Each structure stands twice: as structure tokens, then as C-alpha cells.
Amino acid sequence: MHKSIVAVALVLCMILVACGSKELSRSKAAKLIKEKYYTSQMIQDGAQRTQITEMKGSLVGQSGNAMIPGYNLSDLRNYEKAGWITLVVRSCQTGTCFVDVSLTSKGVEESKGWKKISNKVWEVPIFQREFVEVTGITSSEPSSAVVEFTSRWIPTEKGKEMGAVPSAPKSSTANFRLYDDGWRLVG
Questions:
Q1: Do residues 108 and 120 make contact, with C-beta atoms less than 8 angstroms apart?
Q2: How far is residue 21's CA from residue 12's CA, in Å, rounded to a whole number?
Q3: What is the DSSP string of 108-138?
Q4: Between 7 and 54, whose confidence is greater?
Q5: Which of 18, 43, 94, 157 has the fewest Cβ atoms nearer than 10 Å?
Q6: Residue 22 buriedness (CB in 10 A; 0-12 / 13-18 / 19+)
Q7: DSSP bridge pairs for 154
Q8: DSSP state, 149?
Q9: What's the mean pLDDT when you consider all of the chain?
Q10: How far apart (Å, rounded) are the C-alpha atoms in residues 57 and 128?
């Protein structure tokens, strides 16, 4: 009987010591990073977006050098492939084109879920940030740590319709400090 009480007391002490661990594990760091930087609202707010505008006789660039910021013929062709717009190219010369753009019936239905910027202009989220993993933890003193982690851009459902693919993982760092109640992300 006495041995079992001692054994229970030792196990209880080991549990209490383990719960108060001063070590920052990869899983704990990942949890804290996700809680601070990868909430659904922050992911939504930080999404990369494109704009869709209905226009008539507007000048756009034929390639990446758009005359209207964010618009060029290849972007418009992607929106057309997704079934969101009808694109009519009136004429092209010297790297620019005059175009008419109108929403298709699919585009009108889809636009109900897009953020309306102004009359006939919508913002469409096409990429969002995704946490991948913690890749390392370094510490030069017991009460602070630097955590290296990777994240990447992944296409939203609308981005997938346009043929977008995930980006390669990108490395970032986060600073942690140990307080009396545990590790916290700082900065």
C-alpha cells in the first residue's frame, strides 16, 4: 500500500514538472504561430486578390505591362477561361488592346460572393497564406528563442478556377520569449 502511494506521488510530480516545461517544442511553436498569424480572419484579410471590372472600349496591355493597374490581356483571358467574363478584343497595336469586358451569367452569380469595390468593379481572392511547418528553433539564452518556419501561398477555389497553383514554401522567422506562464510570440 505504502509503495503504491509513493509511486502515485512520483508520477504526479513527473506530470507537474512536464507540464511546466521551459522547453519550446516545434509543436508548441507551430500552435502559437498559427494562433497569432493564421486565424481565418487574418488569412482572409491577407489574401492576394485580383480585380474584375466590366468595361467598354478600355485600353489594356497585351502582357504584364498593364495600362490599367492589374489588367492585361492574359489576365482577362484567364477570367474568360474561368467563365466569369465575356471578352471582346476590338483592336491591338504597339503592346496595347482596346477591349470590352462584361460578366457572364456565371460571373454575375459568382460576383454575389465577391467584394464589390464600386459600380462594376469586384475584388476576388485568388491566393491565401498557408502555414506549412516549423523547420528549426534556436536559442542563445534560456528565455528567448527564434523559430524558423515555412509557409506558402495556396489558391482559393476561385484561384483554382483560374488555374493557379501553390507557391513553393518560403522561410520566415518568429521571435519568442519565455514568461512565467509560458512561451509567447513577441513582435
A1: no
A2: 14
A3: HHHHTTSEEEETTEEEEEEEEEEEEEEEEEE
A4: 54
A5: 94
A6: exposed
A7: 128
A8: E
A9: 85
A10: 33
